[in-house]
Design a protein that fits this description.
The structure is a homodimer of 336-residue chains.
Chain A (H helix, E strand, L loop, with lengths): L3 H17 L5 H7 L6 H13 L3 E2 L8 E2 L1 H11 L7 H12 L4 H16 L2 E5 L8 E10 L2 E8 L4 E7 L6 H15 L7 H5 L11 H16 L6 E4 L12 H8 L2 H8 L8 E5 L11 E8 L7 E8 L4 H21 L1
Antiparallel strand pairs in A: 1-2, 3-7, 3-10, 4-5, 5-6, 8-9, 9-10
Helix pairs in contact in A: 1-3, 1-4, 2-3, 5-6, 5-12, 6-12
Chain A binds a DNA duplex (30 and 30 nucleotides) through helix 2 and helix 3.
DNA sequence: ACTTGGCACTCAGGAACATAGAGTGCCAGC
DNA sequence: GCTGGCACTCTATGTTCCTGAGTGCCAAGT
């Protein structure tokens, strides 16, 4: 149906259109890609490709432009991910290595990715639910007030002030803290609720109300999905590209929920996900594509990151950058 | 020099231009603002106002548009801050009251402000340097590794992992923790360095290297100006307004340093600061104005917030919103 | 059965030109 | 010092025309 040459033509159309941002005609194409055939032949191939829905012409007498379907084929079968240059790799490494804490890692990552791809970068904070408890701390603040601090193995810290139902001495707090840590150390956050369920029963009668209060706040913290926070950077890279509905894209970027869905479900570890134009789950983003990947330390995917740009983007390069950054961030997180 | 009526004309020009986004002519103006004089008279006044630099015409046969100087006069002498409606106040209150922690307060505030003003909102995190230490926690993570957690009276939490020069038992850590808290409780963050300066001397010889390590990390945390983080929201509100250089504005918004300068120095408590067009310290923002105010709990200003929009903005309404939000955030912070 | 050159056709985008209307500046009269 | 009248200036808009890139199709060539 689509022989070798037609695929080559499609590839050429995509590449030229991406680099020039102008509909590409048969003549220019035949010349620049020395396909060894005449423009007329290319025209015939283009007609077929158009009929099949891979390319289209903006108006009757213009060159061709890839459709979403065309980009899809290009990404799936016609292109190879382009690795970063050695210099770029070094730059990433040093830039990320300078981070002082988790917040800093995420901030640096998102900026780095935006700069590298010249597009909008999106990074999700390492998910709480997939990480494990490293330590729980109870800090007395006042007679009936303590601060609950939860530290995870990814370096993330969550804190909440807890109002206690009664005055509790430091020693009882200390006991509770020890108990909590004994049960929860290394526990996956998703398993925390079951793990602490029977904890009050193992306490003397008088400590139970206090424990219950603290536990309910602890569980609340986990449920709050504070973990699913997503940040972005590089919005300026969108300006000047009128092929995307700027306003709608900016609106989408400020909607956490939309962003989350954009980054997609966790896929195969370190597999790149590409969503092209109308494949996107949000109608405001039909002029844009998303390239995303999971990242994490070791084998478990902690969260996802990616970039968003016009459908007409350089997929091989973008995919290379996303993959590389995801890997490096994973390393950094594993190392710290 | 500028009699009452000329000022009225200027006011009318600003108001009309803000609401229509089109140069305003003498005729329309005379009608809509029943000034009691004829268009010809208005024209004369306009000529004077133009000569003085308060208004200008985009091209010879068009209406007039206020200059930055004109807006300045308008803000300073011709307008009154417009208070929010009762409904809006209630909405603010309930929306902010739902915040669970400091991070949430700031996030909600910035969104609220963006929505309220339909412009870009900018909020600075409560400054560390002006708040005080509520608690310092040292959490053992491994034999030679502890986590240092700093909690301030504004609910802010900073954490750092500290690599210790030697293995240190839990009891020694506990002792150090007690000592730290005894010295630092309630201490202004700015005064922390002096306060801990002599602390190692009060320890047994063998504890000093460890203490020194921990203290140096603690001081680093304070210096890192992590506190001066600024976030924004509502960038989508910029789209569609071509009077501002969109790209440049977006770039500015992602530069923490620029944002900080935009919000301005701490001024009189709760005084509104307005920077109009070319008054801005950053050339990319000459088409925009900033309305900012300090906020804090009680008397001390903790940080600043504001909005950024096209020079042609509704100053009275914007100023009202910024002032109101600043106050409410202050209350929330004081209350928690 | 493809490929190719030739050719007529289409149409977006730009240039040139005309038109309408909003707004101005100025002046003479009240 | 205000006002109506009037000539003037431009922008914005619409019309027309033209050019050129690009197409589709056909008939001839391999």
């Amino acid at each position: 149906m689509l022989d070798e040459r037609k695929l080559a033509v499609l590839r050429a159309v995509v590449e030229d259109y991406v680099s020039t941002n102008e509909p590409v005609g048969s003549k220019a194409l035949a010349e620049r890609h020395n396909l060894g055939v005449s423009p007329a032949t290319v025209r015939n191939d283009m007609a077929v490709l158009e009929e099949q829905g891979y390319i289209t012409q903006p108006h009757t007498s213009a060159g061709r432009v890839p459709t979403d379907k065309g980009y899809r084929l290009f990404v799936d079968r016609l292109s190879q991910i382009k690795p970063l240059s050695a210099a770029e790799r070094r730059a990433i490494e040093t830039f990320l290595a300078g981070a002082v804490d988790l917040d800093d890692v995420v901030t640096r990552t998102v900026r780095l990715l935006a700069q590298l791809t010249r597009q909008v970068a999106v990074v999700q904070y390492p998910s709480l639910t997939r990480s494990t408890v490293r330590h729980v701390e109870l800090v007395p603040l006042a007679e009936r007030r303590i601060m609950l601090v939860l530290i995870t193995n990814t370096g993330r810290v969550e804190q909440r002030v807890v109002e206690l139902p009664e005055v509790v001495g430091d020693d009882r707090i200390a006991h509770l803290r020890a108990l909590l840590n004994a049960s929860l150390d290394g526990c996956g956050l998703g398993r925390v609720p079951e793990t602490v369920a029977d904890l009050p029963d193992r306490l003397p009668e008088e400590d139970r109300p206090v424990a219950a209060t603290i536990l309910s706040v602890l569980l609340e913290t986990l449920v709050d999905r504070h973990d699913e926070k997503v940040i972005f950077a590089g919005a300026a890279n969108l300006a000047g590209d009128f092929s995307v509905g700027l306003r709608e894209v900016l609106e989408a970027l400020e909607e956490q929920v939309v962003l989350m869905r954009l980054l997609g479900e966790a896929g195969d570890h370190s597999a790149l996900m590409v969503r092209i134009g109308s494949e996107n789950p949000y109608s405001g983003l039909h002029g844009t594509s998303i390239v995303a990947a999971g990242y994490g330390s070791g084998d478990n995917e902690l969260a996802r990151l990616g970039v968003l740009g016009p459908t007409r983007m350089d997929y091989p390069v973008t995919m290379g950058a996303v993959r590389a950054v995801a890997r490096y961030v994973g390393q950094i997180l594993a190392g710290s």
